[in-house]
Each structure stands twice: as structure tokens, then as C-alpha cells.
Amino acid sequence: MAGRKLTVVISQAQGKNPAQRHLEEEIAAALIMDPEIDVSLVPHLYDLTRDHTGMLFLKSVPGDMLILSWLFPRATRWILDRNGVKGKEGVSLLNKSEEEEDEEQAPAAESRGIGAWDVPNRKIYCIDLRDHSDPRIYLDEVRRIAREKSVQTVDLMQWIKGTPQADKLERYLHPEKLIGRNGNGNGAAAAEGTAPETSAPPEEPVRRRWYPVIDYSRCTNCMECIDFCLFGVYGVDAADRILVEQQDNCKKGCPACSRVCPENAIMFPGHKSAAIAGSDSGEVTGLKVDLSKLFGAPSALEIAAMERDAELVADGRDAVGMSVGIPKRQADKPQARDELDDLMDGLDNLGL
User: What angle do CA 115, 120, 122 make, to 5 degrees?
Assistant: First the structure.
């Protein structure tokens, strides 16, 4: 198969923060000059609908792809996957902590989840633009990946359902028309050493959205989310796998189902809590030991029930509290020992 340039996509920040816009423009302007890279801009990834021009462009990319977004990489990966933009997980050095870089690379743990399906033989790299303010850090990593990868052409039409409309994809299928590498006047300016224009966001409007994203590398298909949610957000596919069926039925700002999920597989990429927004580390409670049990604060399940009740009442429905959809694993059965049990035993031994 023929080699292919690395496609770099910058998913723009929500709003018009000047520092964020400046970082995006610095990266795009530098990558325009690299003959081994095609670069394009799309609106914020989480806000794109399945038929938005930006998402149709992402579906049209046939080879390896690198996404720079203002999201945790895990959230970016599964937003793409659920919209039909599939690929194997590409590893970026920017996603590793200093401790991980110093240690010998251990073999990856086998996923407990049901995993993605119909994954083509290409890689998608996801990098969080919130980690650094210096564009050179991102540029160095993008160019490292471009050098090391022999990007292969893959037949996406094996798994893309339908063909994107030609008129919607025209401006994206020819990125030089967007970013001024060739043929539109800006390329000549770049050759003379002046700064080329970066691509403008698609004219098709977007609105801020709120919906759950399932990480299928963690999801075990236990169905506790569909039992808990009373707003018709979740459904199942033809193979009885859980999915987010009606994204826009979700109540804005409510992350209750993520607290219920026993595997922390449900993300809300716009949430202020890193654990709920898609960070690789940390539990949804944010604490390794749930101190709420010590001091009488609500548990994660109780918080989830209260959040759901608030949305039910706002819809003119009756609150149900803990009586509906509370995970079966919590109901009238002994729990395995955890850190809290060890802590309490230690306090008892001290005679406190």
C-alpha cells in the first residue's frame, strides 16, 4: 500500500479564549510549512454531531491521524470511535507522566471491557492541548510521530456507513484550500517568509452539547447505566451492546450515570472533575478511600440519585431517590474488603 502523509487535526476550543486561539494558530501556521503533514481545523470535537461537516471530514481521513484537542485523550478517542472514526490507539510521549517515562515499559494490562469493534488497521493519536502552553512541545511531538510512522492507506469504506456528501467535504478533502499551502495565494506568501493564514472554522454552526461517552475498553456491558437513567439516553445495538442512543436527551450538567458505573467507563468530557471528564487516573469519587463513609457525607450513589432527582423534578416528574436503578451490586449483599475496612481496623487496634 502506498505511503501517506500524517493528517493532523486541531479541534478548536469552545469560546474565544485568546490564549487558546493563539496556541492553535501557532501550531497550525508551523505545520503548514511541513511537506509531510496535512493539517486542518474543526470545531470542538465534543460539540460535533454525526452529520456535521467537521465530523464528515474526520470520517473521510483514510490513514493515520493525530488529533490535538482541549480534551483528555481517552475522551477524544471514544468520542471519535462512537462517531465512526475508528483506529488503533496511537501512543504519544506527551501522554506519559515523568514517572512512566523513567520506568521500564511494562506490558499493557488486558482490557476488562468489551472493547471497540470493526477497527481498521490505522492509528489515531490523541493529544490534550491543555497540558502545555508552548507550541514547540506539540510541534516536536507531531513531527516525531510523522517521522517514525510510515502512514498507510486503509479502506475506511469497509466500516463507514454511507458516503459523506461531496459538497460538504470539498473544503476538507483539499486541505491546501483551507490552510494556504498551495494554489490559493497564501502558499506564495508562505514561500516568501510571511505568515500563512490558518484555516477558519467551518461556517456550519455548532452549539455546546452535553452527553455521556462510553469507554468500551472499560465497559463490561453490565447495563447498570440503562437501568439508572430515566431519560432515554441509553440503548442497545443489534448485538445487545450498550450504547448512547439519544445523546441530546441527556440533562445538561448532570453526570449521575458516571457515578453509578462500576468500571468508571462513562465520561462527560465537559465536566469540571478530571475523573468524570476522562482522565486516565482516579476514581469518579476522586478519593482512593471514600472518606464520605467516615464523616457522613453522601456516597457517590446517593449523589447520583440526588442529581437524577433534580432533573426529574425539573421535568415535572416525581423524584425516585434510591428506589430505582441503584446498581444491583450494592443491594443487600456483602461487600469485599477495601482500604476503608483496613483503615477502620487500624483505628480500632490503636484504641481510639
Answer: 105
pLDDT tens per residue across span 288-313: 445 555 556 788 899 999 999 999 99
**213-349: which CATH number, 3.40.50.1820, 3.40.50.970, 3.30.70.20, 3.40.50.2300?**
3.30.70.20
Question: Exposed, middle or buried by CB within 10 Å (0-12, 13-18, 19+), for 331?
Answer: exposed
The H-assigned helical ranges of the chain are 18-32, 53-60, 73-82, 98-102, 135-148, 166-173, 175-179, 186-191, 224-228, 256-260, 274-277, 292-295, 300-314, 339-349
User: How far apart (Å, rounded) are the C-alpha atoms in residues 230 and 304?
Assistant: 12
> What are the pLDDT digits (tens) for 214-245?
999 999 999 999 999 999 999 999 999 999 99
- 220 against 164, higher pLDDT: 220
Q: What is the spatial distance between Cα 192 and Cα 190, in angstroms, rounded to a whole number?
A: 5
Pairing of strands 88-90, 123-128: parallel
- pLDDT (0 to 100) of residue 200: 44
Domain spans, the chain: 6-191, 213-349
Crossing angle of helices 166-173 and 53-60, rounded to 10°: 70
d(CA 270, CA 208): 10
> Across all residues in the chain, what is the average pLDDT?
78
**Inter-residue contact 330 to 299 (CB < 8 Å):** no
For 184-235, the DSSP string reads SSHHHHHHTTSPPPPPPPPSS--------EE-TTT-----HHHHH--SS-EE
Q: Are 236 and 181 in contact (CB under 8 A)?
A: no
pLDDT by residue (tens digit) across 7-66? Answer: 999 999 999 899 999 999 999 999 998 888 999 999 999 999 999 999 999 999 989 999
Q: Looking at the DSSP assignment, which residues form a beta bridge with residue 152?
A: 3
Sheet containing 88-90: order of strands: 37-42, 6-11, 65-69, 123-128, 88-90
Which pTM does this prediction carry?
Answer: 0.75
Burial status of residue 248 (CB atoms within 10 A of its CB: 0-12, 13-18, 19 or more): exposed
